[in-house]
Amino acid sequence: MEKKNGGRYGEILWTSLKLGLTSFGGPAAHLGYFRDEYVKKKKWLDDRAYADLVALCQFLPGPASSQVGIGIGLMRGGLAGAFLSWFGFTMPSVVLLVLFAWLVGGGTGFDTGWIRGLKIVAVPIVIHALIGMGRNLTPDLPRLLIAAVAAAGVLIVRTAAGQIGFIVLAGAAGYLIYRNRPPSGKEEGEVPVAVSRKTGIAAWLIFVLLLIALPAVRTAANHVLAVILDVFYRVGSIVFGGGHVVLPMLEREVVPAGYMGTETFIAGYGAAQAVPGPLFTLSAYIGTIMDGIPGALVAVGAMFLPSFLLVVGMLPFWSVLRKKSWLKAALLGVNAAVVGILFSALIDPVIPSSIFSVWDAGVAAVALILLQFAKQPPWLVVLVSGVLGAAIHLFLG
Questions:
Q1: Are 260 and 282 in contact (CB under 8 A)?
Q2: Distance between CA 243 and CA 220 in Å, rounded?
Q3: Candidate ranges 69-83, 153-167, 261-275; pick with highest mean pLDDT
Q4: pTM for this predicted structure
C-alpha cells in the first residue's frame, strides 16, 4: 500500500509540475490546461465533477485555478496529494519571480516577442476547453440559454459578487427546470475525497483563528516577517475575482508603507504575468523585495494557505451535498453557467489582452488547430506559440 501511495503521490507531483511549467495565459487558460490533463488524459474525474469543482472554487476567495488544482490533488491523494498538487503547479513561477526580484528588481520590462506568443496561446487553450466542456455540460437548449445569460451577465456586471450572483441564479434555474428529471441510471462525477468531515471542520477553525490572530501577532512581534504573514494571509482570505484583483490590494499594503516603490511593484506584476502558473505568485516577488528568501517563503505560504484551508474545509461536505437530488438539478444549471463564465473570460480579458493584429490571430489559429485537430500536447502548443510570437515581434514589429 505504501508503495502504491508513493507512486500516486509521484504522479500527482509530476503532473502538476508539468502544468506549472507550461500553464501560461491566466486563470481561464489554466482551467483549460487542467481539463485537458486531468479530465481528458488522466481521467481522474469527468467533466461534470470537474465543473462542479470549478463552480465551488468560484464561490471561494482566492485563486480559483490554484484551488481547483488543490481540490483535484485532495480527491486523488488526500492532504498530501493536495499539497503536492499545489506545490508542483506553483513552485516554477515562485522560483522565477524570486530570481527576477534578485537579478533585476524593477528595472527590466517584459514586453518581448516570446511573451507575446505566450499571451496568444491563452486564446486557443480557452476555446479548446469551451468546445469540450460545452459539448458535455450544455447539451440542450435550456442549458445553452443559461450559459449565454451567465456569459452576458458577467460581461455586464464586472464584479466578483456579480459572478457569484449569476452562478446562484443558474443553480436556481437548473433546479426549476430539472428538478423532476428522472435519474440517468449512471452516477457521473463520483470522485471520493480522502478527507473526513472532522478534518474539514478543523480546516475551517484554523482559517478563522488565523484571520483573527495574525493582526495581533503582527503588532506584538513588530517584525517584517510578521507583517508579511498578516498582509498576505489576509489578502488571500478576502480577495475575490482572481489574480488581477489582488494587484490594488497588495499595492495599498506595501507601497505606502515604504517597502518598495510603485515602479518596483508594477515591474513585479509584469513579471508575474510573463511566467506560467498562478498570478498570486506575485507574492514571491514582493516577499523577496521585503525580506529576501525568508520573506518570499512566508509570503507565498501565507498567500495560498487560505485557499488550501477553504478547499479542505469545503470538499468533504460538498462531496456529500452534491449527491442530493435537488442539488444535482441545481448543479446542471451551475455547470452550464461555468461554461458561460469561461466564455466571458475569453471575450474579456483573454482576447483583448492577447490579440492585437491579424498575425496574432493567425498564431492563435495555428495553436487551436494543433490542440483541437492535431491533438498535440499543450506544452508543445505553448512552445510553438512562443516561437511564432518571437518571429512576429522580430520581423513585423
A1: no
A2: 30
A3: 69-83
A4: 0.76
